[in-house]
C-alpha cells in the first residue's frame, strides 16, 4: 500500500492548505502490503521498496522486480539515489544498484544476511548501516568502516559539514574527517532508527 501526493487539475478547487493523496494497491500493480521506502529517481520514476520486491511506478502502473531481475533478494530494506543519479538499494542479501536497464548486486559475500538497514552517500562513497556496523562501497569494493566501536548500526545522516552521523543502539556517533568515530554524548531512550534535521537545522 502506497500513498502519493497527487498534483492534479483538481488541486485548485481544494480548500486552501489541503493536500490531495492517491492510494495505490495491487490493482495498480503494487503487490505489497508494506512499503518500507520510496524515492524518485533522476528519470522521474518512483521506486518502492518492500518485503515482496522492488516496484517502479511509471505514472500509470507499477512493475515488480525480483531475483529473476538480478536483485540479490526480494526483501528490500532501503532505497537512495546517489549524487550521480544512480539508484541504490539495500536488501536482506546485500546491496545493489541500477546500471542502465539492469541491476548489479554487490557485497553478498561480505555484508550480513538479514542485517541490512539504510543507505547514505558521503565523500564519493556509498554507506550502508548493518547489524555488524557501517560498511562503505568504494570503487566496487565493499568493506567495513574501520574504527567502528562495535554493535549494530542503524540510522544514518550525512551532516552539512560532511561528517557522518550513525545510530549505535541508543547512542549517536559521528564519523569525522580524521576517520574516527566520536560519541556525541547523547543517550536516547530507544534504538536510533532514523536521523534527520528539520528546516531549522535541528537534529
Report on the architecture of this protein:
The structure is a single chain. The protein is an all-beta fold. The protein has no helices and 18 strands. The chain has strands at residues 2-5, 21-24, 37-40, 46-50, 53-57, 62-65, 76-81, 87-91, 94-99, 102-106, 116-122, 125-130, 133-138, 141-144, 156-158, 164-168, 171-175, 181-187. The strands form five sheets. The chain has a four-stranded antiparallel sheet, with no helix packed on it. A four-stranded antiparallel sheet has the order 7-8-9-10, with no helix packed on it. A four-stranded antiparallel sheet has the order 11-12-13-14, with no helix packed on it. A hairpin with a 5-residue loop joins strand 3 (37-40) and strand 4 (46-50).
Class from secondary-structure proportions: mainly beta
What share of the residues lie within helices? under 10%
| C-alpha termini separation | 29 Å
Counting copies of identical and different chains, the oligomeric state is: single chain
Can you tell me the overall shape? globular
Spatial arrangement of strands, main beta sheet: 3-4-5-6
The stretches of 5 or more residues where confidence is low (pLDDT under 50) are 5-13
Q: Roughly what fraction of the amino acids lie in strands?
A: 35-45%
Order of helices and strands: EEEEEEEEEEEEEEEEEE
Mean pLDDT: 89
Amino acid at each position: 500500500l502506497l500513498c502519493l501526493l497527487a498534483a492534479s487539475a483538481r488541486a485548485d478547487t481544494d480548500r486552501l492548505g489541503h493536500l490531495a493523496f492517491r492510494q495505490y494497491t495491487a490493482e495498480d500493480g503494487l503487490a505489497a502490503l508494506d512499503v518500507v521506502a520510496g524515492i524518485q529517481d533522476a528519470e522521474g520514476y518512483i521506486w518502492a521498496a518492500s518485503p515482496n520486491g522492488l516496484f517502479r511506478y511509471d505514472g500509470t502502473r507499477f512493475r515488480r522486480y525480483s531475483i529473476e531481475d538480478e536483485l540479490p533478494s526480494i526483501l528490500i530494506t532501503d532505497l537512495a539515489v546517489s549524487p550521480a543519479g544512480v539508484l541504490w538499494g539495500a536488501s536482506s542479501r546485500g546491496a545493489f544498484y541500477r546500471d542502465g536497464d539492469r541491476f548489479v548486486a554487490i557485497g553478498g559475500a561480505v555484508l550480513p544476511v538479514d542485517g541490512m538497514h539504510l543507505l547514505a552517500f558521503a565523500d564519493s562513497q556509498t554507506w550502508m548501516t548493518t547489524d555488524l556496523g557501517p560498511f562503505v562501497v568504494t570503487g566496487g569494493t565493499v568493506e567495513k568502516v574501520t574504527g567502528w566501536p562495535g554493535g549494530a548500526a542503524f540510522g544514518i545522516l550525512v551532516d552539512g559539514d560532511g561528517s557522518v552521523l550513525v545510530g549505535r543502539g541508543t547512542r549517536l556517533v559521528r564519523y569525522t574527517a580524521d576517520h574516527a568515530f566520536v560519541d556525541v554524548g547523547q543517550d536516547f531512550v530507544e534504538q536510533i532508527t532514523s536521523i534527520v534535521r528539520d528546516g531549522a537545522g535541528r537534529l
